[in-house]
Amino acid sequence: MFSTAQSIYPVRAIREIEDQLIPSAKPSLMERAGRAAAEDAVRLILDRPAAILIACGPGNNGGDGFVMARQLAQAGREVVVAFAAAPERLPAEAAKAHADYLAAGGTIVSDLPAAPANGWALVVDALFGIGLARPVEGRYAGWINALNAQPAPRMALDVPSGLDADTGQPLGTTFRATHTTTFIALKPGLLTNDGPDYCGEISVQRLDIEAPAWVPVRGQAIRPALFRAHLRPRPRNTHKGIHGDAGILGGNTGMVGAALLAGRAALWLGTGRVYVGLLDEYGPSVDCSQPELMLRRAHALPERLSALAVGPGLGTQPAAEGLLAAALGRPVPLVLDADALNLIGTDSALQSALAAREAPSVLTPHPAEAARMLGCDTACVQADRLHAALEIARRHRALVVLKGCGSIVATPDERWFINGTGHPGMATAGMGDVLTGLVVGLLAQSWPAESALLAAVHLHGAAADRLAREGIGPVGLTASETIDAARGVFNGWLIEAQRDPRITPPQRPIR
Ligand SMILES: NC(=O)C1=CN([C@@H]2O[C@H](COP(=O)(O)OP(=O)(O)OC[C@H]3O[C@@H](n4cnc5c(N)ncnc54)[C@H](O)[C@@H]3O)[C@@H](O)[C@H]2O)[C@@H](O)CC1
Ligand SMILES: [K+]
User: Fold this and answer.
1) Centroid of ligand 1 to alpha carbon of 130 (angstroms)
2) CATH topology for 6-217?
3) 20 to 30 Å CA-CA from 124: which of 192, 248, 297, 447?
4) Rounded to an integer, what distance in angstroms lies between the CA atom of residue 141 and that of residue 118?
5) 161: annotated binding-site residue?
6) ipTM above 0.95, yes or no
7) Residue 160 CA: which ligand is closest?
8) Tens digit of pLDDT for each residue in 371-407?
9) Which CATH class is domain 225-499?
């Protein structure tokens, strides 16, 4: 479970690595890539003896396809290679791979053939990789549509053709892979936006390259390894005062539930005391199904809090704005969500107060809230989610999670993380409030802000994944249920961390 973290590199950085390595690499990177892809393919279709179709494009991605074809043919598999470009215009390495394939007895067809009677064992997309420069149209779009229609496993080399490897945006017709073998390192576009829908299962083939030794890492996939140091057992001699006082500010008329959900999430994640300040003047004074929560009027939250979340059901009326301004002045870790973000997006005084804070600030926008903060529309945020998250983090000197498929965590010093847990069943009312509660709960328990955010984001999705495995969701999953599951997953992590000798505290000898 605590496997090491995995680096993510944008295309520019992958190119930098390649440029440094290509001149001296032996065997060549293309040879390594094609061989690794062939090995993945063999594993994938052990039980499918039919022929393999490999569609090769006009660049080095096509070169990977030729190497793969040669390797598979040499391993005794029947291979059909489709290649429509002019061989003399291939880049040098791909031209060599093409020649080597032909020299080994391989043959090439210039149009995509019809499937044999027993179907293909596997179809392979080696059309375009990180060199995709424009939307896929015309002949290649036709090929991709035909490949997508095959009732066989579909494997993409490096990146599904048509998918922007940096943003996860499909550019024109896009290959829909069931498996993607990607080279050197993960790319952000495989993990966020539409990327996961087009990549299927991802296999990273590092090609014996230690990428961080060549280009510093700025992006990482979120894994428990990143926050394992804080998964510590509680001392037996403890009391609730040690585990923090969290405040939730929100719950305006008609939206009391949002604040209660956040409060419950903080409570169920182990916060010592949770206070919920409601703006609804007719709001309840007790949550009968969760009487442990201490409900207050919004202005009456305690002065001494370990961490505060502002936003769930807050509304945007002047009263909410005044409370937010006061909260920004509190010297405690702050989580800002929902209407707190909408208010900040349009009010320069609030923006200044946020940027001036010394205690950590965590912002949790979904794409529409991020768009309001950036003064653009949702499509522009989704067109480059990584850039949007980094820009909000930079402007507001805050940690940011841009929610959605492949949530992105960005730091003010330009590092970033992409989360892989969770599923579409989480696109439902109240889920964001639960995340806010998980973050503020860990902050209240003295977790450092970056670790708290990474852990909460990963936990939120992992809880929903656990429920889906039990048949609770994806359809019909409710936010309340994820709170219960998050507690279970988190305690599982704690148990696992104690088993792991690297972070178990030394045992006292028994005398
Ligand atoms: N450079 C290297 O030595 C290595 C490259 N590798 C592979 O090479 C890929 C990158 O190679 P390239 O930079 O040659 O790029 P690609 O092979 O991804 O594509 C570039 C080619 O496609 C054309 N093209 C781009 N978009 C198009 C579109 N929409 N419609 C029609 N034609 C389009 C370009 O004009 C160019 O000919 C990686 O993704 C990876 O698969 C790996 O073999 C590792 C080593
Ligand atoms: K490809």
Assistant:
1) 6
2) Rossmann fold (3.40.50)
3) 192
4) 25
5) yes
6) yes
7) 2
8) 999 999 999 999 999 999 999 999 999 999 999 999 9
9) alpha beta
